[in-house]
Design a protein that fits this description.
The protein has about 500 residues and is an alpha/beta fold. The chain contains eleven helices and 26 strands. The longest helix has 21 residues.
Length: about 500
Amino acid sequence: MEARVTAHARYTIADIDKRLYGSFLEHLGRAVYTGIYEPGHPTADENGMRRDVLDLVRGLETPVCRYPGGNFVSAYNWEDGIGPKNERPTRLDLAWRTAESNQVGIHEFADWAKAAGTEMMLAVNLGSRGLDDARNFVEYVNHPGGSYWSDLRRKNGQADPWDVKLWCLGNEMDGPWQVGHKTAVEYGHLANETAKALRAFDDSLELVVCGSSHSDMPTYPQWEATVLEETYGQVDYISLHMYFENYEKKTSEFLALPEKLDRYIGTVGGVIDYVKAKKRSKKNVRISFDEWNVWYHERRSDAKRMKEWDWPHAPVLLEDVYNFEDVLQVGCILNTFIRRADVVRIACIAQLVNVIAPIMTAPGGAAWRQTIYFPFQFASKHGRGTALRLDVDCASYDADIAAGISYLDIAGVHDGDAGTLTFFAINRHGEEAMTIDLSVEGFGKARNVEHTLIKHDNLEARNTKDAPETVAPRKVDGATISDSGVEVTVPPYSYSMIRITL
């Protein structure tokens, strides 16, 4: 099979916001406890944080981390996680039917984020709580001193404010499963009034209002229209979430699902434009896609288990063990975000450790990279710069979600400072290798090309504690420089990163 791809220096989409490669940690299962935090672990630092996990997180170069939820935040009292640890209360978390010890709160998370080299993206509780608690939390986190909440932070050991700029106004408030679920009008009014109060404190804050939890919600996309009509002048982003499933184990259908993601983004982008026009506004609201991942391996069985247990602390929950097939899907998702970088400015893989995550740990033992760690790492490290509008000519197939799904899923990024072009290419054909004729115009001549491949003959191949490198990237030969650019052949069902030095 042959594919022709043209990249031209004139045809660009947008400069990529580095926060497109954000992450997420929720007080859910073992994401926090025995995930990032395990005081008795051999690698634990003075704060009880696992250094081995920190090393793997730093390897992802994820610029922002959303916290503390997620469904958890909708019944969370942030004050429970401050002050002496031996005085912090244990609470019942209604979202995941577990007990929360509050041994990790904003101070511990802030220290961890600094060590991990990531910025905090904090969420406020607009489910069981509201405006007053949100403004108090922001004051505690961001005010230098001389007020009740800022002086309490100083008393608790943090003299300087953390100066967090990015704040989520609740989580998935359209979902009937959410503690404090509201209609679009109810939520929109509350979110707008909360945003006004936070802007009265600091107008430079970046505020994220809740969009639809997924594109199959019965209220979608009217929810976005109603909420944005209530909040447009006060917020900067609207959040979207999507998870990808393959219960039927049909790879071609599974790998076509990013077309649904693309339509979701396009529709909400259209709603944003509609509300902007209706309000005669000059302001641009963008999308924060702050939950996304493959999630189905343990989802149904865990839903049954949750109904039976009696409020355990940090149980094994939603610990999907990812396979090679998921590498291809994650690569396609990231490519979609790059191609929509003009409207999707922030995105957060859900989640970071243990819970549907690229990093796994054993309590008291090892930490290792799941298969999906690698496509995320490559995009985060090398997918920064300007997203390119590519012309792609390749054979296609018809899927249930849409017709005309290209066998080649590809995104391109130009890093002018580094003098590189990077292409992320997924061959969605299960039987045929693909030769890609990659023409680069207006950039200057290619001086060098590197091809990094992730490929395994078994789509179900997994990385485990005992075999942590079963699926891993490797540099391969075969990419050649041509008069117009480069030529490279990629095997069936494979992920490739092609980096051209100009």
